[in-house]
Amino acid sequence: MQTDILIVGGGLAGLALADHLTSQGRDFLLLEAQDRLGGRILTKEYSGAAFDLGPAWFWPGQPRMAALAERFNIPVFEQFSTGDLVYQEHSGAVQRGRGYASMAGSYRLAGGIGSLVNALGDIVDPAKFLTNTRLIAVEHSAGSITAQVDHGGTAQIIKANKIVMAIPPRVIADTVSFEPALDAAQMQALQNVPTWMAGQAKIIAVYDQPHWRNAGLSGDAMSQRGPMVEIHDASPMQGGPYALFGFVGVPADVRVLHRDEMMRLAQEQLIALFGPKMASPMHLTLQDWASIPGIARPQDRQPVRSHPSYGLPTKLSGLTARGLIFASTETAPEFGGFLEGALEAAERVANTLSLNETMSM
After folding, report:
1. Structural domain tally of the chain?
2. Which residues constitute the signal peptide according to the record (predicted)?
3. CB 201 within 8 A of CB 248
4. Do 179 and 238 reside in the same domain of the chain?
5. pTM, whole model, 2 decimals?
6. What is the pLDDT of residue 207?
7. How many CA atoms lie within 13 A of 70 on its CB side?
8. What pLDDT shows up at residue 356?
9. Residue 172: which domain range?
């Protein structure tokens, strides 16, 4: 199998790059290790409505996300934030009015962020996508890439002129071998880049009525007790069903060992915070990103407590001349880690590839 540009990773960065290359008329092939496209974006339907189990927001001043939503006619709406915030002390005591909705002013998409994944996937030739396909090894030199992949348990070889790795740098370091081998400084540079939100887990609770809104609450809650430490309204743009989601504060290793107990405590927490009507959710779902090896590596199991300073490490930039290009959201210098950063990274790589093509003519 042969292609000009091999894209590894079918998250937003990889899909956006595929979109750019399609419009440029370039030959490419995109590999995705999971059985679906989207990467860290995951939107699931419960009782007829779409809910984001991965990223859910973008913000004013992030023009690429806004432009994509407009291009695909996906309605944008503001995060619901009307009403009091609820605060839970370590003792379990609950107070109202202890702050404001922290995500007020952020934007969401009708149908969830997955609507962007679907829209981008629909405009690219499906023959360009290989899911259930994991990159194992890369032989690289200027103008020549040989990639060994595992496609559903079968080893395959793909030859390309360039390879764009739109997957987290730590995943590359842990799961891909290179010939010639990357030097110690380059491998360390990959390992040093935290995978944004990879150690996180989210709990979604879906209801037939917005009981918190009916009680004058925004759905925002902060808790020192847990298991959810931060909660927000996750309801669709209009109509029901309605939902709250919470970021889980329980360490990843403990989540695995005590999942059922944690979910029981989460349901009790919702009742304590928002009242007895929260006792019977239609759906109560956990999405644990730390449990997915193709996204989170062992060092990602400890959540990042503040937003890292992202951008392509200097030690890796020189590998472009050997056809190795890095393009996950963590490589974006301005919006690294965000959805906007994935689009920023894809745009940078598309412009670089276009310039290289022009100069080679």
Report:
1. 2
2. none
3. yes
4. no
5. 0.95
6. 98
7. 6
8. 66
9. 1-41+113-196+308-361
CA dist 12 → 80, 263, 304, 313 (Å): 25, 30, 21, 21
Q: What digits encode the pLDDT tens for the residues 28-62?
A: 999 999 999 999 999 999 999 999 999 999 999 99
Token representation of residue 261: 């107990």
Same domain (yes/no): 214, 361: no
* 15 located within any domain: yes
Please calculate the CA angle 320-326-331 and round it to the nearest 5 degrees: 120
What is the Cα–Cα distance from 130 to 154, expressed in whole angstroms? 13
Phi, psi of 272 (to 5 degrees): -65, -35
**One domain, residues 342 and 272:** no
Q: pLDDT of 113-171, one tens digit each?
A: 999 999 999 999 999 999 999 999 999 998 899 999 999 899 999 999 999 999 999 99
| Residue 28 to residue 17: CA distance in whole angstroms | 10
User: Which among 199, 235, 241 has a CA at the least distance from the CA of 220?
Assistant: 235
Position 359 pLDDT exceeds 90: no
* Co-location of 338 and 215 in the same domain: no
For the segment 337-342, the average pLDDT, to the nearest whole number, is 98
Q: Among 294, 322, 346, identify where a domain stops.
A: 294
Backbone φ and ψ of 276, nearest 5°: -65, -20
Q: What is the per-residue pLDDT across 200-239, written as a single tens digit (0 to 9) for each?
A: 999 999 999 999 999 999 999 999 999 999 999 999 999 9
Q: Are strands 84-88 and 217-223 parallel, antiparallel or unpaired?
A: parallel
